[in-house]
Amino acid sequence: MQLSRFGNKFCGESATVSLMDDLGEALSVNPNLLFMGGGNPARIPAAEAIFQNALHHVLADGNKVHKMLGVYQSPQGDPEFLEGIALLLSNRFGWKVSPKNIAVANGSQSAFSVLFNLFAGEYDDGSCKRVQLPLVPEYVGYEDVGFSADFFRATIPYIEYAGKNSFKYHVDFEKLKLDAETGLLCVSRPTNPTGNVLTDGEVERLAALAEEQDIPFIIDGAYGTPFPNIIFTEAKPYWSPNTVLVLSLSKLGLPGARTGIVVANEDVIQAFVRANTILSLACGNLGPTIAKEMLRDNELLRLSNDIIQPFYLNAARQVTQWAHDCFAGLPYRIHHAEGAIFLWLWFEGLPITSKELYQRLKMREVLVLAGENFFVGLQEDWQHKHECIRITYCQDGKVVRRGLEIIAEEVRKAYEG
Q: Which residues contact 61 (CB under 8 A, 6 or more apart)?
C-alpha cells in the first residue's frame, strides 16, 4: 500500500507515538512496568472526589446530561464555559478578555496542530516560515504536528549552574535570532520536559521581540496558571493581544476529557475556530461540562491552588531527595524543579546515548524518556542532548524510588564500561 507524503510523514517513526505506546503498555497492558515516562497526571483522591461531585450534579439533571452527550458543541465552544473562563481570567489577572477571546479544542495537542500551521509553513507568496523555539529542550509533542518540512528552529539555551548537582536553562538572547522566516515564537511555561519556569523578564522580552517582528507569541500553559497551577516558584502570568495562551484540563486530572483552551485576540480566535471546525467538526462536551460545575463556586481554583499544586510540590521535593541519594557519586545534575510533573536528569559525559540508556532501562522494565526526543528543531548536534533523560514522579512513591535505584544502577554500569 502506497501512502501520500502526508501519510508517510504521519505514519512513520515518531517520538510522540512511541511515548503514547509506552504509556498504554505501562497503564493498560503490563502493570509490572515501572512507569516513569509519559505525562499522565497522578491520581489524587481529593481531586477525583471533586470530579465525581461535579459529575453527580450533572447526572442528576436530565437537561445537563442531554447537553453533555446529545448535542454538538458550537464551533467556538460552549458559551457558558467560554464566559466562565473569560470571567476567571479577567477577575484574577485583570486581563481584558471576553468570550470572544476564548475557544475550545480537543486537547492542547490538537490546538497546537492548528495554531502552528496557521502561522508556519508555506505561504501564498512562495515563502516558508517556521516555529521558533527560544530554547530547548521543549515538549516532544510539538515535533510532528507541522504539515510541511523543516518546520522548527530552536536555540541552544544558556545554562546556569547551581551548586554541584543542580542547573537551570535560560533563554540565550544573544543567540536567539528572529528573521523573515520566523512565523511564531512558542514556549511552554512550566516547561515540559525540564520543569523550568521562564522568568518574568524572559517572558516579557520574548513577547516584545514577537511584537517587533509582528508574529504571535504562544505560551503553552498546560501545567501553568491559573489552572492546574503546578508552579513552585514566583511567576507572573502573562497575556497580551499579541499573545496566544493555551490551557488544558488534562493536568487537573482530566486527560481523558481532551479539553484544550485557547486565549487570543479575536482575529486569531476566529481563524482558529474556522480551521478547527474543518478538522474536528466540534469539540467534546465532557470537559467543559465538568469544568462549568467547578467554575460556578470557584472550586476550580481551589482545586488547583490547595490540592494539586501542594501535591506535586511535595512529590517534587521527595523525588529530588531520592535522586540525590540514588545518584550519589555519579556525575549528575538535576534541573531546578520549578513546576510541572517531571525531573530532568543530566549525566555529564554519559558514555552511551540517552536512547541506549532508555533501551537498557526498558529491558529492566523501567520506562523513562530519552533526552534526544526533546531537542525539537535544533540544527546543531549538541552532545548535551545525548546525556539527559526525563522521568515523571506521578506514580506511587515505591515505584518512583525503585525506578530511580534501577536508573542509578544502569548509569553506573555505563560509566564503568
A: none
